[in-house]
Specification:
By secondary structure, the chain is an all-alpha fold. It is built from 16 helices and no strands.
Length: 347
């Protein structure tokens, strides 16, 4: 006689069976995200960092067969959807409102930081892709950029470890900048416009940009957010350029792995599509707010999943060089943006 439970399971729709497989791991990641959000809201601090540290402390759960599929789903699919939804908050009009001089200066800062990442990697004898990822995380949008750019890197265990260490480092540096930069701007007597451009052009994560701008008044906060969203909009071309560089390098070495490095992942295409829709007015403010909230939540879930898949010992194997790269790139970006503001007649 056949087992009725097996017959019932076989008769379920495929998506229901798939959900049943994913749910244990997904529920663990969601619990971590809820806990990290609670701690952030009640005690302050970045939820992404809390989620990552909680995930690292619970990494033993990832070895359980019941949770493996769900954790992998959150670390990959949920992450990509979260990054794609960032595009709903960005419009071409926002970029145009900055003026071409500011827009060009910020774009040059992003290119400079990514290029400096590659140079620092060569100097410290690290793989070039690690320098490009670190440069993009500092130059564009912190942890979100690190996770997005990691998708165009060859899928190796070392790259996964470096990505997580970059997330930790860039989140910590962004938190320090959130507190330190407003104090420096006040002492320097910077105007609200200058302060907003500097904060939006240098701080890594969006949440920290908002917090730092709020300390200096509504005009500085609004300007900082617009400049920051412009940097986020540069994520798509930066990811495509990095993918092209890596594909070309791997192809020149005669390796077959070049085909595994996507030039522009599907979720970045969705990101661009949402920017276009937002620019033509198809995305209402309420929809943009909802997409932004969903994106933040998904990124916290994904970071928690990434932490679950990693051990502290694996991160320690990377040494001090990755943190040195992040600090050097952060200082370089701050000096560049500060100099651009001082020399510009627009800001």
């Amino acid at each position: 006689m056949s087992d009725p439970r097996s017959s019932a399971a076989a008769s379920r729709p495929a998506f229901v069976a798939r959900a049943g497989v994913l749910w244990p791991g997904v529920s663990v990641c969601m619990l971590i995200a809820l806990s990290a959000t609670f701690v952030s809201e009640h005690y302050g601090g970045p939820p992404l960092l809390y989620a990552l540290l909680m995930g690292l402390s619970l990494n033993f759960l990832s070895s359980h067969p019941a949770t493996t599929a769900g954790i992998a789903f959150c670390a990959k699919t949920v992450l990509r959807v979260g990054v794609a939804l960032l595009g709903a908050r960005i419009t071409v009009g926002q970029v145009a409102g900055l003026g071409w001089e500011i827009a060009l200066a910020i774009a040059a800062g992003v290119a400079l930081t990514v290029g400096a990442g590659a140079a620092f990697a060569a100097l410290l004898r690290r793989p070039r892709e690690h320098g490009l990822l670190a440069g993009a995380s500092v130059g564009i949008c912190g942890a979100s950029a690190a996770m997005a750019v990691s998708s165009v890197l060859p899928p190796t265990r070392e790259n996964e470890r470096f990505t997580l260490l970059t997330v930790i480092g860039v989140t910590l540096l962004s938190t320090v900048a959130m507190v330190l930069y407003p104090l420096i701007l006040k002492l320097a007597g910077a105007s609200a416009l200058q302060s907003g451009v500097f904060l939006g052009g240098t701080i890594h994560d969006v949440a920290q940009v908002v917090a730092a701008g709020t300390l200096l008044g509504p005009q500085a906060a609004d300007t900082a957010v617009i400049v920051k969203l412009y940097r986020v909009a540069l994520l798509a071309p930066a990811a495509m350029a990095i993918g092209f560089v890596l594909r070309s390098r791997i192809a020149s070495q005669g390796a077959n792995e070049g085909a595994r490095v996507p030039l522009l992942p599907g979720f970045m295409v969705a990101f661009i599509a949402l920017v276009v829709l937002a620019s033509v007015g198809a995305v209402t403010p309420a929809m943009a707010d909802a997409a932004g909230s969903a994106s933040r939540w998904m990124l916290v879930v994904a970071i928690g999943a990434a932490g679950l898949k990693t051990h502290f010992e694996e991160l320690a194997k990377l040494g001090w060089q990755p943190l040195a790269m992040l600090v050097g790139e952060t200082l370089l970006l701050a000096v560049y943006v500060g100099a651009a503001i001082v020399l510009s007649a627009v800001v």
